[in-house]
Amino acid sequence: MGVSLSWVAVQGLSAEDALSRLGLKHTGNTCSYPFKGIASHGLLADWFLVMAGRCDHRIGLSPSLSTLSAGCRLVACALEEHVNYASTALWQDGQLIWRVEHQGDLDPENMSCQGRVPQRFHDLLVTVEPEDSENLEGHFHMDVPLMLAQELTGFRHDESNPVLDNTPFDELLDLQPKARWWKLWA
Fold first, then answer.
1. 3-state SS assignment for residue 21
2. How far from the centroid of its chain's Cα atoms is residue 11's Cα?
3. φ, ψ for residue 81 (rounded to 5)?
4. Interior/surface letters 68-81, b for 16+ CB within 10 angstroms, e for the rest
5. C-alpha span between 167 and 92 (Å, rounded)
6. How many C-beta atoms surround the C-beta of residue 184 within 10 A?
7. What are the DSSP E strand ranges found in 73-178?
8. Are 76 and 146 in contact (CB under 8 A)?
9. What pLDDT does 185 receive?
């Protein structure tokens, strides 16, 4: 089936301010890893991570990212493994700086970008393995957005991380009401 996640790591903003801007609050409960629901965790270098167990969660959508990044910077990452999709974006002061996206369901070697992508993106793209490669030590198109996010924040969802491995995530409550499936316009 595969993992489906959205996560945002913000730097230069307190955890409480980040949660407030996103319409979230602490529940007082912890969880081991948020494959469902929504949770937060501190990272190194003053990054604060908010992760949701859905690729299309509102925390990773442009309106939330613009609001959250006002006066600071953030990295947003979305992942839907069962369709071979990954994206990463850098936002600062309410503006999108760059975005990299791989949509493997369209084309296994698909890669799109916008904005002022870092040189590292081009370096990684040159060394990507072909779709039919059996070199599991190399990286593939879907890895490129995930590697860029990790290089900025120190976090990648599928790798061991000493900061996260022995410390639970804080469960969060979403204060924004959900639209009813039968009343999408509400």
1. helix
2. 14
3. -65, -35
4. bbeebbbbbbbbbb
5. 29
6. 7
7. 73-80, 85-92, 95-103, 112-115, 169-174
8. no
9. 57
Cα distances from 178 to residues 39, 58, 131, 171, 175, in angstroms, run 17, 10, 39, 18, 9
Q: What is the pLDDT of residue 106?
A: 84
Distance of CA 120 to the CA centre of its chain: 18
Q: Which two tokens stand for residue 126?
A: 């040159």
Alpha helices of the chain — where are they, by DSSP H? 15-22, 62-68, 119-126, 143-153, 162-165
Q: Is 162 helix (H, G, I), strand (E, B) or coil?
A: helix
Distance CA 39, CA 168 (A): 10
Q: Is the dihedral of CA 108, 150, 39, 49 positive or negative?
A: negative
> Helices 143-153 and 119-126: crossing angle, nearest 10°?
140
Per-residue pLDDT of the chain (186 residues; tens, 9 = 90+): 689 999 999 999 999 999 999 999 999 999 887 678 999 999 999 999 999 999 999 999 999 999 999 999 999 999 999 999 999 999 999 999 999 999 988 888 889 999 999 999 999 998 888 777 777 667 888 999 999 999 999 999 988 887 778 889 999 999 986 665 555 555
Joined together, the tokens standing for residue 157 give 């969802």
Q: Are 53 and 40 in contact (CB under 8 A)?
A: no
Q: 140: helix, coil or strand?
A: coil
